[in-house]
Amino acid sequence: MNIILLGPQGSGKGTQAEMLVKKYGMNYVEMGNILRSIAASDNQYAGVVKKTIDKGDMVEDEYVRLIAWDHINKQDKEKGFLFDGYPRSLPQYEHLQDMLRKFGKKIDRLIYLNISQEESVRRLSARRICKKCGEIYNLITNPPVTAGECDKCKGELIQREDDQPEAIRHRLQLFSERTEPILERARQENILMEINGERPIEQIYEEIVSRIWTR
Ligand SMILES: [Zn+2]
């Protein structure tokens, strides 16, 4: 089974991905992490990826394709994949389909965790990061034991520049422009599963699991 999991920032995508990977045992492809580790390595694409990430831009399709191919090709395809935060554009989506076709596979499901822009802004504005160790907290969903202080290292918790409401709205705008065409395509292909993400984690998870095999 090959699944794509998409959702705006703050949709709780990462949490659902972890639970699904644990249940179904597929390969987990979290493109954000892959790109960050490439940026920090001596990989041939490290320079260009790092520059793009540091600017807060999206890595170009051309590089994402090459990197995705490198990564996916090394995994056991029989275990299936859960793609988290990838593909991010229609060309990337089409390329992923081509790749899977080469292995005799296809995308079985695209799960879209839908939350409103207001809710996304509310959740992301509540995000705090430890100045010392980088641990991430959320004042709504995952608060520290002592207010303003990191549980792990007692460091000071701060709000990142790009977690200010204006910056968040800008990112959400880019996300919806890029993602809308993918959702539209998946709808035509009858593999789109849209989920209301403004509910408790357990409820969302149960709905995904109960609907995953049905059309
Ligand atoms: Zn810390």
TrEMBL record:
<feature type="region of interest" description="NMP">
    <location>
        <begin position="30"/>
        <end position="59"/>
    </location>
</feature>
<feature type="binding site">
    <location>
        <begin position="10"/>
        <end position="15"/>
    </location>
    <ligand>
        <name>ATP</name>
    </ligand>
</feature>
<feature type="binding site">
    <location>
        <position position="92"/>
    </location>
    <ligand>
        <name>AMP</name>
    </ligand>
</feature>
<dbReference type="InterPro" id="IPR036193">
    <property type="entry name" value="ADK_active_lid_dom_sf"/>
</dbReference>
<dbReference type="GO" id="GO:0005524">
    <property type="term" value="F:ATP binding"/>
</dbReference>
<feature type="domain" description="Adenylate kinase active site lid">
    <location>
        <begin position="127"/>
        <end position="162"/>
    </location>
</feature>
<feature type="binding site">
    <location>
        <position position="36"/>
    </location>
    <ligand>
        <name>AMP</name>
    </ligand>
</feature>
<feature type="binding site">
    <location>
        <begin position="136"/>
        <end position="137"/>
    </location>
    <ligand>
        <name>ATP</name>
    </ligand>
</feature>
<feature type="binding site">
    <location>
        <position position="130"/>
    </location>
    <ligand>
        <name>Zn(2+)</name>
    </ligand>
</feature>
<keyword id="KW-0547">Nucleotide-binding</keyword>
<keyword id="KW-0545">Nucleotide biosynthesis</keyword>
<dbReference type="GO" id="GO:0044209">
    <property type="term" value="P:AMP salvage"/>
</dbReference>
<feature type="binding site">
    <location>
        <position position="153"/>
    </location>
    <ligand>
        <name>Zn(2+)</name>
    </ligand>
</feature>
<dbReference type="InterPro" id="IPR027417">
    <property type="entry name" value="P-loop_NTPase"/>
</dbReference>
<dbReference type="Pfam" id="PF00406">
    <property type="entry name" value="ADK"/>
</dbReference>
<feature type="binding site">
    <location>
        <begin position="85"/>
        <end position="88"/>
    </location>
    <ligand>
        <name>AMP</name>
    </ligand>
</feature>
<dbReference type="InterPro" id="IPR033690">
    <property type="entry name" value="Adenylat_kinase_CS"/>
</dbReference>
<comment type="subunit">
    <text>Monomer.</text>
</comment>
<protein>
    <recommendedName>
        <fullName>Adenylate kinase</fullName>
        <ecNumber>2.7.4.3</ecNumber>
    </recommendedName>
</protein>
<dbReference type="GO" id="GO:0008270">
    <property type="term" value="F:zinc ion binding"/>
</dbReference>
<feature type="region of interest" description="LID">
    <location>
        <begin position="126"/>
        <end position="163"/>
    </location>
</feature>
<keyword id="KW-0963">Cytoplasm</keyword>
<keyword id="KW-0808">Transferase</keyword>
<dbReference type="Pfam" id="PF05191">
    <property type="entry name" value="ADK_lid"/>
</dbReference>
<keyword id="KW-0418">Kinase</keyword>
<keyword id="KW-0479">Metal-binding</keyword>
<dbReference type="InterPro" id="IPR006259">
    <property type="entry name" value="Adenyl_kin_sub"/>
</dbReference>
<dbReference type="GO" id="GO:0005737">
    <property type="term" value="C:cytoplasm"/>
</dbReference>
<feature type="binding site">
    <location>
        <position position="171"/>
    </location>
    <ligand>
        <name>AMP</name>
    </ligand>
</feature>
<feature type="binding site">
    <location>
        <position position="160"/>
    </location>
    <ligand>
        <name>AMP</name>
    </ligand>
</feature>
<feature type="binding site">
    <location>
        <position position="199"/>
    </location>
    <ligand>
        <name>ATP</name>
    </ligand>
</feature>
<comment type="similarity">
    <text>Belongs to the adenylate kinase family.</text>
</comment>
<feature type="binding site">
    <location>
        <position position="133"/>
    </location>
    <ligand>
        <name>Zn(2+)</name>
    </ligand>
</feature>
<keyword id="KW-0067">ATP-binding</keyword>
<dbReference type="InterPro" id="IPR007862">
    <property type="entry name" value="Adenylate_kinase_lid-dom"/>
</dbReference>
<feature type="binding site">
    <location>
        <position position="150"/>
    </location>
    <ligand>
        <name>Zn(2+)</name>
    </ligand>
</feature>
<dbReference type="GO" id="GO:0004017">
    <property type="term" value="F:AMP kinase activity"/>
</dbReference>
<comment type="pathway">
    <text>Purine metabolism; AMP biosynthesis via salvage pathway; AMP from ADP: step 1/1.</text>
</comment>
<keyword id="KW-0862">Zinc</keyword>
<feature type="binding site">
    <location>
        <position position="127"/>
    </location>
    <ligand>
        <name>ATP</name>
    </ligand>
</feature>
<dbReference type="InterPro" id="IPR000850">
    <property type="entry name" value="Adenylat/UMP-CMP_kin"/>
</dbReference>
<comment type="function">
    <text>Catalyzes the reversible transfer of the terminal phosphate group between ATP and AMP. Plays an important role in cellular energy homeostasis and in adenine nucleotide metabolism.</text>
</comment>
